[in-house]
Amino acid sequence: MAILEKGFDDAIAVLALPGKYRKRLRTESGIERLNKEIRRRERVIRIFPNRASALRLIGALLMELTTNGQAVKKYLDMAEYWDWRERQAHAADNKIVKIC
Questions:
Q1: Residues 6+ apart with CB under 8 A from 54
Q2: Could you report the per-residue pLDDT of 56-96, keeping only the tens digit for each?
Q3: What angle is formed at CA 9 by the lines to CA 4 and CA 96, rounded to 5 degrees?
Q4: Rama region for 76: left / alpha / beta (φ>0; ψ in -120 to 50; rest)
Q5: What's the pLDDT tens digit per position in 17-33?
Q6: What's the rounded Cα separation, in Å, for the pair 2 and 85?
Q7: Which residues of 69-97 are buried (b: 16+ CB within 10 A; e: fewer)?
Q8: Cα 26 to Cα 85: distance, rounded to the nearest angstrom
Q9: What is the mean pLDDT of residues 31-58?
Q10: In whole angstroms, what separates CA 88 from the centre of its chain?
Q11: Which InterPro entries match (predicted)?
């Protein structure tokens, strides 16, 4: 229970973000989709002679996704996040000044 209580704030940190980001960051569908594609291709090869060959397969898949434009799409617009974060920091600074 102590471990759960200690990590609780970290586990719910995503809830402090704007809704647009919460929706994207609380799911792992992009990672799951990539892992599924790696597993699909791995089944064709079955046995890798060494670790380097497995890494080459993953690298080739990532390059293929990038050149096809699938990975080029922005997952999140970070400019909006940085603006939000700056507003949060400014609000926190104002709170500190009012208390003093």
A1: 42, 48
A2: 989 998 888 877 765 556 667 788 888 988 998 888 887 76
A3: 150
A4: beta
A5: 888 788 777 777 777 88
A6: 30
A7: eeeeeeeeeeeeeeeeeeeeeeeeeeeee
A8: 18
A9: 88
A10: 21
A11: Transposase_mutator
In the structure encoding, which two tokens stand for residue 59, read together? 């690298």
Number of domain units in the chain? 1
* Interatomic CA distance for residues 50 and 83, integer angstroms: 46
pTM above 0.85? no
Tokens representing 8? 């609780």
Question: Residues 6 or more apart from 76 whose CB is under 8 A from it?
Answer: 20, 21, 24, 25
The pair of structure tokens assigned to 44 is 């064709």
**Domain range spanning residue 28?**
2-99
* pLDDT of 98 strictly over 70: no
